[in-house]
Amino acid sequence: MPPHAPLPVVAIIGGGFTGAAVALHLASRNRAGREARIVVFEPREKLGKGLAYDTNEPANRINVPASKMSLFPDDPESFARWIAETGALAGDETAFAPDGQPFPRRHVFGDYAFAMVAPYLSSGAVEHRRTRVTGLTRSKGRWRVSAADGADLEADLVVLATSHPETAPPRVLSPLAGNPHYIIDPTAPGALDAIGVNDRVLIIGNGLTSADVVAALSERGHVGHIVSISRRGLRSRGHPAVAREPFGDFVTQPAFTASQLLFRIRGALREARRLGLGWHPVLDAVRAQGQQIWQVLPVQERRRLARHVRPYWDAHRFRIAPQVERVLDDAIGAGRLEVLAASLATASVVGPALNVGVKLKGSDVIRELTVDWVVVTTGPAHGGILKSQPFLTELETQGYLALCPTGLGLLCDSRSRALGVDGKAAPGLFIGGPLARGTFGELMGLPQVTDHAVFVAEQLSTALETLAADRRDVGKLAG
Predict the structure, then answer these.
(1) What backbone phi and psi angles, to 5 degrees, belong to 350?
(2) Residue 251: its pLDDT value, please?
């Protein structure tokens, strides 16, 4: 690079866990750290927390033991060691599972992530722009990042590490729109505070967020009746009493169809049952090998899995902390929580109450529920990601972004470069984190998200080296 030439700029849009991890690993690579300016756009006060870990709800805990969460693939004990060094669990008497494994409150992991990136912020190796991105356009070989604070940034490389899109409430619930007892975002601060201890609650969805809502209400002393529904009635599972090594090999002779894959998984489950191992280690093996399994499958087979198998996968893969599992088990045992396999049929407001009709699975019976609150926990609407923020819509209009045909996020190639509808890679535009899972497979939890952040940092570093070489060549020609 010619003397006194400005440093190349890497803009990371989104400073949750993924964005912070990409920035940290890029900055830690000596050459990239010296030869690039790294700017993270994130409205929150601290990088690394994002939506998942920026919560002070005491019932919200990480869903795996602390020893399985880390910002560093080659140092899996990093988080657990930080907890011990900082005393982060002081005052949390219920942090430990019966086997002694800690399941800290979720904000503790966010504090850890920020603590790891903080030295790079202090040194200036990473810059935090505490503002929203409002526009992203390509001009003269660079990206112009427009922000809500009014200051634009010219960037050579851009990483989209944005959050999941918001929940899209089921249309049948539209008659409840605007009612203060209809909660679309239960993760918002104070969203559950107005629910009375005896109030009747209907939860739409049976996944992790549903479990968090039940646990949070229990923390507040709630004893009213709760009904939680999903089409299949699958609630999130817990962890095994005794942890075991993953069981099963699904990559040596890979399956090339969804049917073949399911056949092999069922076979491994039968063998594990015969050996007294249970289902957990088999699903752990599928998760650990998930990206290799996924990437050999044709797109149509990926779509089949996403459409038909994903609910079952989510229920077994996204396990809840033992503390939360105990709350759900106690509530079901006491008759306070009822989990139904049902779909929504009708909704109306009758005086102070909300009436919702649900059609029970396998029958034409519609059960009428009269409740005080309806809480939606159906998860992000991935199909609406390109309409979730103006700059994403802008990129789609320009032809730089497209939805992944699996319906799981944004289209990208094996180097995590964004692809347009024409299949061409957008120059210098990368997809980071869960929005890339349509291409990479399992990307919704650690350690896979960390591994992918390291991978994206490596791609950026390579791109920076190419950029530097090009600039040197231009400098020689100019000389």
Answers:
(1) -125, 100
(2) 94
Taking the CA atoms of 394, 427, 462 and 476 in sequence, report the sign of the dihedral they define: negative
Which pair of structure tokens corresponds to residue 176? 């409840």
Question: Are residues 59 and 215 in contact, defined by beta-carbon separation less than 8 angstroms?
Answer: yes
Contacts for 269 with CB less than 8 Å, ≥ 6 apart: 279, 282
Q: Which residues of 233-256 are buried (b: 16+ CB within 10 A; e: fewer)?
A: ebbbbbbeeeeeeebbebbeebbe
| Residues 227/201, Cβ–Cβ less than 8 Å | yes
Please, is 476 exposed, middle or buried when counting C-beta atoms within 10 Å of its C-beta (0-12, 13-18, 19+)?
Answer: exposed
3-state secondary structure labels for all residues of 206-240: CCHHHHHHHHHHHHCCCCCCEEEEECCCCCCCCCC
Average pLDDT over residues 147-165: 93
pLDDT in tens, 118-147: 999 999 999 999 999 999 999 989 999 999
Query: Which residue's entry shows tokens 């992000």?
Result: 380
Decide: 281 and 268 in contact? Cβ < 8 Å: no
Can you tell me the distance from the alpha carbon of 339 to that of 400, in angstroms, rounded to the nearest whole number?
43
Q: Residues 347-401: pLDDT tens digits?
A: 999 999 999 999 999 898 899 999 999 999 987 766 788 988 999 999 999 999 9
Other CB atoms within 10 A of residue 149 CB: 13
310-317 vs 280-288: helix crossing angle, rounded to 10:
110
Output the CA torsion 182→187→189→192 (10° steps): 40
Mean pLDDT of the chain: 92
Task: Note whether 223 and 264 are within 8 A (CB).
Answer: no
41 φ, ψ to 5°?
-95, 115
Q: Is 155 left (phi over 0), alpha (psi -120 to 50) or beta?
A: beta
- Give the per-residue pLDDT at 33: 47
The predicted pLDDT at position 5 comes to 65
How many H helices and E strands in the chain? 15, 16
For 387-397, letters b (16+ CB in 10 Å) and e give ebbebbebbbe
Say what the pTM is: 0.91
The amino acid sitting at 5 is A
The token pair that represents 201 in the structure block: 């609650």
